[in-house]
Write a structure and sequence with these properties.
The structure holds two protein chains of two kinds. By secondary structure, chain A is of the alpha+beta class. Helix content of chain A is about 60%, strand content about 15%. In chain A, a hairpin with a 2-residue loop joins strand 3 and strand 4. Chain B is elongated. Classes of the chains: A alpha+beta, B alpha/beta.
Chain lengths: ~500, ~230
C-alpha cells in the first residue's frame, strides 16, 4: 500500500520543484543567459578588483606609517643629542634650522619649557589630545588653510621641557585619492568589458543554439536528413543526442514510408490477381465448378493479403517497441527443444535432416512468443530453400564476453547467446545479404517460391527488440542466419520489476 | 446448440448466421451492444459469439464483463479486428474463452464454436481414460490401444491424439492444433501441422483396416470413430 501511494507523492514533489524556478525568474528580471553571464562576471571582477586594491591600500599605508614613525624616532634622537650638547637654545636652533631646510614642508615640531611657553617649532601650541609621552598619536591638524592628518610623538626633556616631533602624512591622503580613482576607473573598464563580454557571450550562445535551432526547424519543415554540425564545444552533448534522435525518427519514418510503398506495390499484386480471377470467372465461367475454383483461388489470395497485413502490422508494432511489456525471464533450452520438435517432422517430410547443436543456455530476459515466431520464420525459410537430402543445422551456444583485460575477471558470465540456423540451399550473394532484412525484399532466385518477403524483416524486428543483432553469412553451400541476443539486460529487468511492484495490476 | 451472435456488420452477421444454421445450430442475433446484453442476460445460451467493437456505447468487453460479474459462465468466443497479442490477452483476461480475429475462415469459426460448445458440457470430474470406437487412451499411463493392440506414441503425438479424441466428431483446424497442442500463436509458412498429423496417422491408422483421422478440405482434421 505504501508503494501504491508513493508515485503521486513523488509527482507532487516534482511539481513543487518545477514551481521554484518560476518564482526565481519573477524576482530576477533578466532572461538573457549572455547578459546574466556578463553581469556575473562583472560583479566578480569588481569584487576582486576592490579586494586587490584594498590590500594595496592597506599595505602601502602600513609601510608609509612605519616609515614616518621611524623618521620621527631618529629625528627625535638627533634632537635629544643636541639638547645634551647645548641645552634648550641649541635644540631650538636645530629645530628652526630643520624647518628652514624642509622643502616638502611636512615636518612638525614644538618645543616648550616648563611653563608651557613655546620656544621653537611650527605648531601653534600643545595639542590637547597629546597627553601621554613617548606615544604615537595620529591627529588632524589645521595648517595654513587646510586640515591634514599628521603623526606625532611627544618627549620629556630635562628640566620639565617637552618636545613634539611630528610628520605631516598628507602623502597618505594622496595615495588614497589615487587608489580611489583607480578603483573608479577599474569599475568603468570592467563595466565596459562586461557589456562587451555580454554581447560576445550572447552572440556565442546564440550561435551555439542557432545551429541546433536551424536543424530543428529544417527537420520541422520536413528535411529529415539535416544534422547538427559537431563543433567540439559543450553543445555537442545536446547536438549528439538530437542527432541520434533524428536518426531514430528518420529510421521510423523510413519504416513508415517502406510500409506505405509496400502496401502500394506489393499488396496491389495479389489484390489485382484476386480481382481478375473473380472478374474472369464472372464473365467466362461455364460451369459451377469452374466458378467455385475461381472463388477458391480468390479466397486463397485474400488470405495471403491478410497474412501480409498481419506481418506488416506485427513488424511495425515490434519496431515501435511497444511489445516489450511481454518480456519475462524465459528458458531458451525448452523453447529451442520444442521448436526443433515441431520442425523436425517437416524437415523429415521434405527429405531433410535437422541437426541440433545446442548446449545448455542461461535464462534470457525476452519475449517468448516473439522469439518463437522469429525462430519459426528462420526454420520455415531454411526448409523452403533446402535441396532434398541435405542437412539443416539449428545451433545455439552462449557467447563469452570480449576477453579484454578489464572483463577477464568476469569470465564465465556470457555476454549473450548465438542462435543460428544453417541450410545447404542456394544461399545468397553478398548484395542480397545486405538487403535481406528489407521489407518485401526477395532474392532473384527466390522469386518463384511462395512467401511474402517479410519473414526476415520480422526476425530483424524481433532481434532489435531484444537489442540483439541479426547476421547472415554465406556457409558454402547455403546460408547461415545468426541471432545474437545479449544477456546484459539485468538493468532493464530490474526497472521492469520496480514498475510491476508499483502498479500490481 | 443455442447460440447468440452479437455483431454489428450486417454482411458478416448474415454470413455467420447462415453458416451456423446450416451446421444445425439455433441462432439468435443482435446488431448492437444493448440488445446483445439484454439477450445474453435474459436467455440461456450454449455459446455466445461477441464482436468486440459494437455501436451503442456497450462494446463486447462490457457485455462479457457484465456476464462474468453475474457469475454467468456461458462460453464466449470473441470476434475482433484487433489482432494484437495484447488485445487478445485483454479479451481472454476479461473472461473470454476463445478469440478469433477478422478476417476469418468460417470453418475456423465453426470448429472453435463447436469445440467451445462441447467444453461447456463436460466440465465434470477429470477422466482417467478416453475411448472412441475401438481406440482407447489411458491418460495416466499414457498408453494407447486400438482394437486391443498397443500403439507406441511420442509424448507430443499422444497430446495431439488426445486433443483429437476429446474433440471426436468435430472439425479441428490447424491453427487450433498449433495453439492447443503446441501452445504456439504464430502462423507457420510450412505445413508443420500436416506433417505431425500424417506421422500420427502412420501409427494410428495405417496398421488398421479403417482410418479414424480424416482430412476436411479447407478446414482441418476430424477424428471420426469407425462405424460398426
Amino acid at each position: 500500500m505504501a508503494e501504491d501511494r508513493s508515485p503521486p507523492r513523488r509527482r507532487w514533489f516534482r511539481r513543487r520543484q518545477e514551481k521554484q524556478p518560476d518564482a526565481r525568474r519573477r524576482r530576477w528580471p533578466i532572461r538573457s543567459a549572455g547578459i546574466n553571464f556578463a553581469l556575473g562576471y562583472g560583479v566578480l571582477f569588481l569584487i576582486s578588483a576592490t579586494l586587490f586594491l584594498s590590500f594595496i591600500w592597506w599595505s602601502s599605508t602600513n609601510l608609509l606609517n612605519q616609515h614616518v614613525r621611524a623618521f620621527i624616532e631618529t629625528d627625535a634622537q638627533e634632537l635629544q643629542k643636541r639638547w645634551v650638547y647645548g641645552g634648550a637654545p641649541a635644540l631650538g636652533d636645530a629645530i628652526t634650522d630643520r624647518l628652514e631646510q624642509n622643502i616638502d614642508d611636512d615636518a612638525l615640531y614644538l618645543l616648550i619649557d616648563r611653563h608651557g611657553r613655546r620656544l621653537a617649532g611650527n605648531l601653534p601650541g600643545w595639542p590637547v589630545a597629546i597627553k601621554k609621552m613617548n606615544h604615537f598619536y595620529e591627529l588632524s591638524i589645521r595648517r595654513y588653510t587646510f586640515t591634514t592628518p599628521a603623526e606625532f610623538k611627544a618627549y620629556h626633556l630635562p628640566h620639565g621641557f617637552k618636545m613634539i616631533v611630528g610628520h605631516d602624512i598628507r602623502g597618505r591622503t594622496l595615495l588614497s585619492t589615487v587608489i580611489t580613482r583607480t578603483l573608479i576607473w577599474c569599475a568603468v573598464m570592467i563595466a565596459l568589458l562586461a557589456v562587451g563580454g555580454a554581447l560576445v557571450v550572447r552572440d556565442l550562445f546564440r550561435r551555439m543554439v542557432g545551429s541546433i535551432a536551424r536543424t530543428a526547424s529544417a527537420v520541422a519543415n520536413g528535411d529529415l536528413n539535416h544534422r547538427i554540425a559537431l563543433t567540439g564545444s559543450e553543445t555537442d552533448l545536446v547536438a549528439e543526442t538530437v542527432n541520434t534522435m533524428l536518426d531514430r525518427i528518420n529510421r521510423l519514418m523510413e519504416g513508415v514510408r517502406q510500409v506505405s510503398n509496400a502496401i502500394a506495390h506489393d499488396l496491389r499484386t495479389p489484390i489485382t490477381r484476386a480481382r481478375n480471377q473473380l472478374e474472369e470467372a464472372l464473365f467466362s465461367a461455364t460451369s459451377p465448378d469452374e466458378l467455385r475454383t475461381a472463388v477458391d483461388k480468390a479466397i486463397g489470395d485474400l488470405d495471403h493479403i491478410t497474412g501480409i497485413f498481419e506481418a506488416l502490422l506485427r513488424i511495425a508494432q515490434i519496431e515501435a517497441g511497444s511489445r516489450r511489456s511481454a518480456f519475462t525471464m524465459m528458458d531458451l533450452n525448452q523453447l529451442l527443444a520444442n521448436m526443433a520438435e515441431l520442425y523436425e517432422a517437416s524437415a523429415e517430410d521434405a527429405g531433410l535432416s535437422l541437426h541440433l547443436d545446442i548446449v545448455p543456455l542461461p535464462p534470457l530476459f525476452g519475449d517468448e512468443r516473439m522469439l518463437q515466431q522469429a525462430l519459426a520464420n528462420l526454420l520455415d525459410n531454411a526448409i523452403k530453400f533446402s535441396p532434398p537430402n541435405s542437412t539443416l543445422t539449428l545451433s545455439a551456444h552462449p557467447v563469452p564476453a570480449m576477453p579484454t583485460p578489464e572483463t577477464a575477471a568476469a569470465e564465465g558470465t556470457p555476454a549473450g547467446i548465438d542462435i543460428s540456423v544453417q541450410d545447404q540451399g542456394p544461399g545468397m550473394n553478398d548484395a542480397d545479404i545486405l538487403r535481406a532484412h528489407e521489407r518485401f525484399f526477395r532474392a532473384e532466385s527466390a522469386r518463384n517460391t511462395p512467401g511474402s518477403g517479410l519473414g526476415l524483416s520480422l526476425v530483424q524486428a524481433v532481434t532489435s527488440l531484444h537489442h540483439g543483432r541479426l547476421t547472415l553469412t554465406q556457409a558454402h553451400p547455403g546460408l547461415k542466419v545468426t541471432l545474437f541476443l545479449p544477456l546484459t539486460q539485468e538493468a532493464e529487468q530490474n526497472a521492469r520489476h520496480t514498475i510491476s511492484t508499483e502498479n500490481p495490476s | 446448440m443455442r447460440i447468440l451472435l452479437v455483431e454489428d456488420d450486417p454482411t458478416v452477421r448474415s454470413f455467420v448466421l447462415k453458416g451456423l444454421k446450416e451446421a444445425g445450430h439455433n441462432v439468435d442475433q443482435a446488431d448492437n451492444g444493448k440488445d446483445g446484453l439484454y439477450l445474453a442476460i435474459g436467455e440461456k445460451y450454449d455459446i455466445i459469439i461477441l464482436d468486440r467493437m459494437l455501436p451503442g456505447g456497450i462494446d463486447g468487453l462490457n457485455i462479457l464483463e457484465t456476464l462474468r460479474g453475474q457469475k454467468n459462465n456461458t462460453p464466449v468466443l470473441l470476434l475482433s479486428a484487433l489482432s494484437d497479442v495484447d488485445d487478445r490477452v485483454d479479451g481472454l483476461r476479461a473472461g473470454g474463452d476463445d478469440y478469433v480475429t477478422k478476417p476469418f475462415a468460417f470453418s475456423e469459426l465453426l470448429a472453435r464454436v463447436e469445440a467451445l460448445g462441447r467444453r461447456g458440457h463436460n466440465d465434470s470430474a477429470p477422466e482417467t481414460s478416453l475411448t472412441v470406437g475401438d481406440l482407447s487412451l489411458d491418460l495416466l499411463s499414457r498408453e494407447v490401444r486400438r482394437n486391443g493392440q498397443k500403439i507406441d506414441l511420442q509424448p507430443r503425438e499422444f497430446r495431439l491424439l488426445e486433443f483429437l479424441v476429446r474433440h471426436a466428431g468435430q472439425v479441428v483446424t490447424r491453427t487450433m492444433l498449433l495453439e492447443k497442442v503446441w501452445d504456439y500463436h504464430f502462423d507457420p509458412q510450412t505445413n508443420v501441422i500436416d506433417v505431425h498429423v500424417s506421422r500420427l496417422r502412420q501409427k494410428v491408422d495405417k496398421p488398421f483396416e479403417t482410418a479414424i483421422i480424416h482430412t476436411v478440405r479447407n478446414a482441418g482434421y476430424i477424428l471420426r470413430p469407425t462405424q460398426d
